[in-house]
Amino acid sequence: MAARKNHHFVPQFYFRRFSLDQRSICVLQRDTGKTIMHAPVKNQASKDWFYGDDAIEAALGEVEGACSAALRQLDEVKDPRLMEEEQIQLILVWLTLQRSRTMTARQASQPLNDKILRMLLETEIANDSDLDENAKQKLLSSLGEIKSNPLRNHLMEIKIAMESAEILSDLTPLLLFNKTNRPFVFGDAPVVLYNGFYRNVQLRGVLGLNTPGLMVFFPLLPTVILALVDSSTYTVKHAHNNGVQVRNFQDVMALNKLQIHSASTCVYFHDFQFAPYVTELWRQEQKILSRHAGIVNEAPGFSSETGESMGDIVHGFQPQLPYRLSLSFLQHNVLGDEEYRFSMRNKHYQ
User: Fold this and answer.
1) Residue 339 and residue 186: Cα distance in Å, rounded?
2) Alpha carbon distance 286, 33 (integer Å)
């Protein structure tokens, strides 16, 4: 069998859930706003040798097969809580896999991985007795050009994400049914994490899987989004059997804008008659769209017991998307850095 060099980070079966002819999809290019009517599904959200090895692409394909069956079962239930436990777990695995496998995820983790590698090399150089001081200074001055291997780090992060899927099991699942005449769209990073409860926290990461206030959004169809919310921090209005009838155009717009911000290259929609609508959403957000890059903070560390210096502490995290999400059916407080207190939502995984 010939090697499959075109590796997808959003699988073709997912695109077909939105495709009118099962072969093509409508596209908006995130950098220019240009729209394309019939883009072949087989060429979307993919890159030659993205996973480095055809065996990895094949292994992920097996996971996709099991998870796609769980997504189909989700299509048929009236209440997501009624799904079989095994199928629920597959949905959670799918969400963590799909979020972690994208180009957006790879770009976001690169700054911290580069920083860690440079710190390790700095220590090795400083402790190398075979180097004189001039040689050490020359090597140290070139560390800023060193970058970590994005593929190797990314594969490890995908593995860790899938193993952590069960952490999401305490979140409340909601099906958001779009009752407007505007569709849900999706990007090439369709699983979006957001934290409205910690919306104003800027100095720390608040998108960890076990963070209070976490929300997960994943479009299933042009008319349905799967959402996971932390019921301890959010009150859901007008929900019936864990479903919400979304009739507010502003809610649909907000959820679509999240997809535009989360995407790295492209946003997709099912019917080209909506191209002006999707283009207008992009136009409204164009000036604040940003490249996905994690934040790395370095600060002196001190012992809480003695007050003695413990060297520098490096804190790396993925910042929230530059969009202030507001949904009419969700009520919650909004905390900032002054009110923030570290805690974990799911005590079982502390």
Assistant:
1) 33
2) 9
